[in-house]
Amino acid sequence: MTAPKIRDVDFRDLMHLEPHGPDTYVGIVACYPWGQRLFGGQVVAQALRAAIHTVDTERRAHSLHSYFIRPGSPDEPIRFEVERLRDGRSFCTRQVVARQSAGAILNLSVSFQVAEDEADVQANSIPDTLPGPTDPSLLDYSWGSLLERKSADASDTRLGYWIRLDTELGDDPDLHLCGLAFMSDAAPSRAGRSLHPDFTNDPSDRFKFIGASLDHSLWFHRPSRADEWHWFDLKSHGLSGGRGLVSGDAITEAGVHAASFTQEVLLRRRRDEKAPEA
């Protein structure tokens, strides 16, 4: 099969999964700017969507934890196999394995909860001095017409991005959760490199390193719209053994702390620093 380029794909098309037997779904793939590897955030979002299909509508995902097992290929669809681990009165748990012909590419666990009327206290906010997403001084790292992304750092140690999906997603809250999961994997890589001695926070930095996502966890705190701007506030927790740990918060332009996430990244110094061809 020939996958469409990401600039020609609508996010809702990525989230449309075809049933292929009990609790099994198949999703499309797309070609990303870096070549013959899928974007991990796409696979996480699709796996979350598959899990959502097996849960009652009054339950909403509140956390997910995933391992990237091998690189996904843009040359074939992805099969998502859902296992119903538990259905309780307040919580339920699903496990999803995403597969292609080479084997499993992702293992994801998701927990869902019935809405509860309890205390709501927010601790994180956007700094008053942070440039807004339309500030012309921000560097643009967008992906065609699917994802808008602009670097916006609060300090030398608090790196960040303004990110949103460049499409109208409607009012399905689960689709916005999937969108936030997709966006959250587009944020950590620069922060993962930030403590390396060769990092200069210049766009060319990324060509100095070979990197990949190893695992990804996400906690959903409050509803938000993935087609509106979120500031992803990022912090690196160090480098060791070719791995770096990044944590972050996703906060809407209106100041709502929507989600928190962590990711461990693989980071190796490239021997040949030549930039890949466009």
From TrEMBL:
It comes from the Bacteria. Its EC number is 3.1.2.-. InterPro entries: ACOT8-like_C, Acyl-CoA_hotdog, Acyl_CoA_thio, HotDog_dom_sf, TesB_ACOT8-like_N. Residues 148-266 form the Acyl-CoA thioesterase-like C-terminal domain. GO terms for molecular function: fatty acyl-CoA hydrolase activity. SUPFAM superfamilies: Thioesterase/thiol ester dehydrase-isomerase. It is an enzyme of class 3 (hydrolase). One of its GO terms (biological process) is fatty acid catabolic process. Residues 33-113 form the Acyl-CoA thioesterase-like N-terminal HotDog domain. Keywords: Hydrolase. Belongs to the C/M/P thioester hydrolase family. PANTHER family: ACYL-COA THIOESTERASE, ACYL-COENZYME A THIOESTERASE 8. This is Acyl-CoA thioesterase II.
